[in-house]
Amino acid sequence: MKLDIVTLDGGKAGSLELSDAIFGLEPRADLLARMVRYQLAKRRAGTHKSKGRSEVDRTRKKIYKQKGTGGARHGAASAPQFRGGGKAFGPVVRDHAHELPKKVRALALRHALSAKAKDAGLIILDDAKLAEPKTKILLGHFGKLDLSSALVIGGAEIDVNFGLAARSIPNVDVLPVQGINVYDILRRDKLVLTRSAVDALEARFK
Fold first, then answer.
1. If you ran DSSP here, which 8-state letter would residue 18 be given?
2. 169 close to 139: Cβ distance less than 8 angstroms
3. Which positions ≥6 away from 140 have C-beta within 8 Å?
4. pLDDT above 90: percentage of residues in the chain
5. To which H or E segment does residue 144 belong?
6. pLDDT tens sequence across 129-174
7. What is the DSSP letter of 19?
8. Are 54 and 78 a contacting pair, CB within 8 Å?
9. Whole-prediction pTM value?
């Protein structure tokens, strides 16, 4: 697969041959769904908590005698059916993460990249650098490239000026190549890869 390389000004800077093993696969929705579920579950804090009947501050004394009242038999005011009682089967602090094989995660990333390439949502950028950290200038460049919702993947390090200019633009994310992930790729309309990012990805999946 061959794509044109564009500059921030909207001009052309040659073309690049992309690996079909990374960008030419037939996207599988099941793999992408599994990976997104894995990512979202892993980042959940899991700090939700409610008090059970053994944790609430209520008397343990029997409310009334066992027999002769005509009412139900109760042993303590901490039972869930009473006001101020503990919650039955409430949430507890736990880890929501689940396992997903490393090979499946790697394959899901390749399928996400292929999905963007197939839907014409992939742009190869010559370089993501700015002379000064001005959001207005970067918005002008994005207007020429028709970018309103995009994930920009740079090299091993993001240019400081580019990162500062982009951080206040809504629906635009900027990540170094080692931070690329399936969820962020799919949540934006366009995927913008710099030339160095493509080289790093092809070396990673070699």
1. P
2. yes
3. none
4. 90
5. helix 135-145
6. 999 999 999 999 999 999 999 999 998 899 999 999 999 999 999 9
7. P
8. yes
9. 0.84
Cα–Cα distance for residue pair 153/173, rounded to 1 Å: 8
> What tokens does 44 get?
């959940």
- What the block records as the tokens of 165 is 């200019």
Distance between CA 157 and CA 179 in Å, rounded? 10
Alpha-carbon distance of 173 to 166, in angstroms, equals 8
Alpha-carbon Rg of the chain, whole angstroms?
A: 27
Compute the distance between CA of residue 125 and CA of residue 8 in angstroms, rounded to an integer: 7
What span, in angstroms and rounded, lies between the C-alpha atoms of 119 and 201? Answer: 19
Per-residue model confidence as pLDDT tens digits over 74-111: 999 999 999 999 999 999 999 999 999 999 999 999 99
Burial of residue 61 (CB within 10 Å: 0-12, 13-18, 19+) is exposed
Contact criterion met (CB below 8 Å) for 177 and 153:
yes
